[in-house]
Design goal:
360 residues; alpha/beta; Aspartate Aminotransferase, domain 2; Aspartate Aminotransferase, domain 1; 2 domains; seven-stranded mixed β-sheet; two-stranded parallel sheet; 13 strands; 35% helix; globular; binds 4'-deoxy-4'-aminopyridoxal-5'-phosphate
C-alpha cells in the first residue's frame, strides 16, 4: 500500500503512527473485544479515553485551570452561532475582524442575534493580508472581540494576537490550533473544528474561560448552551466518541514529538522551504503579503489558469495530492499541517522546480 502526500485543507493528513495504532486497536480495544466505535460512551473504557484526550490537550496547550475544555459536534460553523448566543448576553454587541470567508460566514450568522461592528477588513485586498487594527475603532461596550487566527482559504495568519484589554477575545483556530505554542490566557474562548490538526471531522473543540459560561436565553436550544456541556462534562448526549479517541492519540503524538515548541519548529522549517522557493521562482508566486503569511496553508499561483491546472494534474500523478486552491480563489494551495512530514514538502518543492524548468 502506498501512501501519498496529502496537501488537503481538511479533512487533512493525520500522523501515520496514529492511524496505525487505530488500525491495531480497531477490532479489539485493549482486550475488551470491541472496537472504540462500539463502546458505550458511559462505560469505563471510553471514560478513560475521554479523560486522556482532555488531559492530553490541556498538557499540550498548557490550558489554565480556569478554562473548560468542551467536546462538541456541529463543526466549527456551529460556533458562528453559539458564540454570539452565549457570549453576547450583556450588551448584545461584538467587534469582528473580517479576514476571509470563514469570518464572513461568522459575521453573517452573528448578525442574526447581535449588533455587530466590523472593526477592520481585508476584503478590499482580496483577503491577501491581515489588516492593521486600530484600537480607537474598538467598541468599549462589546461583549467580545472576534478573530480567525488563520485563514485557511487565503493563507493568512495573525503574527501577533490583538490586545483587547477586558473585552474577551474569541478565536476561530480551526486551521492553526496546535501548530505552535499559544498563551491561552489571552483568549476568552478558542474553538476549532478537528479535521485539520486534531483528528477526524465531527468533533469541535471549545476552550472557554469559566466566567464566560453564563447560559443562553430561555428560548435557545439546550444543545447550543455551553453550560449544558460544562455541567455534563460534554456528555449531555452522545459525544463524537471515535473522533475524540483519535484526537487523544494525536495529542499523545504531539507530546512524544516534543510538544508545541518542537511542532512550531517543524512547521516553520516546512513553510520556509516553500516560501523561499516561491520568492526565488520566476514561474510561481505567493499572492499573500509577506507579513501575513500562514505556516499552515500556502497558496501559490502561476497567473495562468491552464498552467495551474496542468501543474495540479501532474503533481497528482506524482502522488502530491489535493493541491488545487479553494474553488473561490483558484490557483494552488499546499496545506502543510502538523502531520505533513518534511519529506512531503521537499517532494513538492522538487516537483515545482522540475515543473518550472519544463514550463518557463
Ligand atoms: N473556520 C475555519 C478557519 C475553517 O477553515 C473552516 C473549515 N475549513 C471552518 C471554520 C468551518 O468548519 P466546519 O466545516 O467544521 O464547520
Amino acid at each position: 500500500m502506498a501512501r501519498v502526500y496529502n496537501f488537503s485543507a481538511g479533512p487533512a493528513v493525520l500522523p501515520e503512527s496514529v492511524l496505525k495504532k487505530a488500525a491495531e486497536e480497531m477490532l479489539d480495544y485493549k482486550g475488551c473485544g470491541m472496537s472504540v466505535m462500539e463502546l458505550s460512551h458511559r462505560g469505563k473504557e471510553f471514560k478513560e479515553i475521554f479523560q486522556n484526550a482532555e488531559e492530553g490537550l490541556r498538557q499540550v496547550l498548557n490550558i489554565p485551570q480556569n478554562y473548560k475544555v468542551l467536546f462538541l459536534q456541529g463543526g466549527a460553523s456551529l460556533q458562528f452561532a453559539m458564540v454570539p448566543l452565549n457570549l453576547a448576553g450583556k450588551n448584545k454587541k461584538a467587534d469582528y475582524v473580517n479576514t476571509g470567508q470563514w469570518t464572513k460566514k461568522a459575521i453573517k450568522e452573528a448578525k442574526k442575534y447581535i449588533d455587530l461592528n466590523v472593526v477592520a477588513s481585508s476584503q478590499e485586498d482580496n483577503f491577501t493580508l491581515i489588516p492593521k487594527l486600530d484600537a480607537n475603532n474598538f467598541s468599549k461596550d462589546a461583549d467580545y472581540f472576534y478573530i480567525a487566527t488563520n485563514n485557511t482559504i487565503y493563507g493568512t495568519a495573525y503574527q501577533q494576537i490583538p490586545e483587547t484589554g477586558d473585552i474577551p477575545l474569541v478565536a476561530d483556530m480551526s486551521s492553526n490550533i496546535l501548530s505552535e505554542p499559544i498563551d491561552v490566557s489571552k483568549f476568552g474562548l478558542i474553538f476549532a473544528g478537528a479535521q485539520k490538526n486534531i483528528g477526524p471531522a465531527g468533533l469541535t473543540i471549545v476552550i472557554i474561560r469559566e466566567d464566560l459560561v453564563n447560559g443562553v436565553a430561555d428560548n435557545v436550544a439546550t444543545l447550543l448552551d455551553y453550560k449544558t456541556y460544562v455541567e455534563a462534562g460534554s456528555m449531555y448526549n452522545t459525544p463524537p466518541c471515535y473522533s475524540i479517541y483519535i484526537a487523544g492519540l494525536v495529542f499523545e503524538w504531539i507530546k512524544q514529538g516534543g510538544g508545541l515548541k518542537a511542532m512550531q519548529k517543524h512547521n516553520q522549517d516546512k513553510a520556509q522551504l516553500i516560501y523561499d522557493y516561491l520568492e526565488a521562482s520566476t514561474l510561481f508566486r505567493s499572492p499573500v503579503k509577506k507579513d501575513s503569511r500562514s505556516l499552515m496553508n500556502i497558496p501559490f499561483v502561476t497567473g495562468n489558469d491552464a498552467l495551474d491546472a496542468k501543474f495540479i494534474k501532474q503533481a497528482s500523478d506524482k502522488g502530491l495530492k489535493m493541491l488545487k486552491g479553494h474553488r473561490t480563489v483558484g490557483g494552488m494551495r499546499a496545506s502543510v499541517y502538523n502531520a505533513m512530514p518534511v519529506a512531503g514538502v521537499k517532494a513538492l518543492v522538487a516537483f515545482m522546480q522540475e515543473f518550472e524548468r519544463q514550463n518557463s
